[in-house]
Amino acid sequence: MEKPKKILILLSSLKLGGGAERVASVLGTELNKRGYPVDLLTYYNYKERYVFEGEYYSFNEVLESSVFVKFKKLITRPLAISKFCKDHHTDIVISFIEKSNFYAILSKIFKNKSKIIACVHNNPETNYQKGIVARVTNYLIKKLYPRADKIVVVSKEIKEILCASYKIPRNKIEVMYNPHNINQYIEKSTEPLEERYLKIFKNSYVFINIGRLSEQKAQWYLIRSFKKVTEKHKNAKLIILGDGELKGELINLVKKLNLGGSVFLLGNQTNPFKLLKHSQCFVLTSLWEGLPNALIEALSVNLPIISTDCKTGPREILEPELKINEEIKYPHPAKYGILIKPFERKMVFEDLNDKPLTKQEKDFAELMIEIMENNELGERYKKGIERARDFDIEKTIKEWEGLFKNYNDNKL
Question: Which of the chain's ends, N or C, has fewer CB atoms near its CB within 10 Å?
Fold first, then answer.
């Protein structure tokens, strides 16, 4: 198959820890290995970033909080992107996350002749709910996304949301799961643990969570619920991997609840798989998602899973035959994990003595206790690898190659 002359992957940064950032680095590297000439362009440059095997470029911008500067970038960045594409003879731009999607599409105004493929990794309905930024973002999605040559979404439900709520033409949208190198995950999971981590696992039942320390991931609900688990099982431990803007609040929450010896915030890890492999259960408390990579990573090492049934992704991963809008009773014993009712979008950090656990937090704690005590329940969900294979990188790359063929056939 004739390959496009040049592909550009565009996103804010390759900073370690981000889901879209990881996907961009994996996709770009894999395409490059298969003979596709790939450039990767970011606005910000971080020392700790995902590995990308290809030509890497950055505008080396400085983070700005000024509203004026942010609106100014709606002109300056599209102009710079258009110039980059012209100078590098770019055929196709693959952009990640809303802002980069907007900039890429707007670059057409400045005579960028490249085809634009905008990748959507989150549910915009829940990601952008309140405030002027949310209103502007939702407006731009409605106005700009139809101007992209193709929109790639990571879950079937996001496609339905874009069609129903944002009136995006259905034929503009393709569903493609994130690429996962399942064999590599399995191989990495066999690497030995460092001594400092072995101490956590010794004679313990370990729950593990991976995700940015942010409102979206809602780890405060996990920590509050876990307090009740430790009251019954002193050997219960909780590991949280990731970094983010709520790190300080979560550390303080752990201290206030006297969980310093039971909850461990270990930051970003270059190899989370060896920690997943040694854990007993993966827990996800997200308020919203796109298609959570962490669930697929946990499935790849046959780790039992408890996850909120948030929009979108967990249901599609753990119970693929269940209809998107079908009502279910919680907790729901899905085929590849247990789905629980989504939590309320409300942060809980202050006045903890006046805020006892909600019924939902208590139910979550009881479910964690049940999976600790019921060996049969835990064993039932140690078959995740068969589902993880559905997200293998080989399948994803073939789908991308199908898109590129459409480019060569002038159908994109």
Answer: N
Condensed to tens digits (0 to 9), the pLDDT of residues 272-329 reads: 999 999 999 999 999 999 999 999 999 999 999 999 999 999 999 999 999 988 999 9
Mind listing the pLDDT tens digit for each residue in 158-214?
999 999 999 999 999 999 999 999 999 999 999 999 999 999 999 999 999 999 999
Contact 364, 223 (CB under 8 A): no
Helix H or strand E segment including 232: helix 219-232
Bridge partners (DSSP) listed for residue 42: 11, 58
- Contact status, residue 95 vs residue 103, Cβ threshold 8 Å: yes
List all residues 6 or more positions away from 193 whose beta carbon is below 8 Å from its beta carbon: 201, 274, 275, 278
Among 368, 344, 116, which Cα is nearest to 227's? 368
Task: Look up tokens 């129903």; give the residue.
Answer: 164
What single string gives the DSSP state of each residue in 234-284? TTEEEEEE---TTHHHHHHHHHHTT-TTTEEEEE--S--HHHHHH-SEEEE
In the DSSP assignment, the letter for residue 206 is: E
Q: Whose structure tokens read 């198959």?
A: 1
Closest CA to 17 of 267, 360, 342, 228: 267
Q: Are 311 and 301 in contact (CB under 8 A)?
A: no
* Domains observed in the chain: 7-180+392-408 (3.40.50.2000), 182-390 (3.40.50.2000)
Dig out the tokens for 362 from the structure: 């208590």
Q: Is 349 exposed, middle or buried (0-12, 13-18, 19+ CB in 10 A)?
A: middle
Spatial CA neighbour of 120 closest among 89, 99, 92, 91? 99
76 — phi, psi (to 5°)? -65, -40
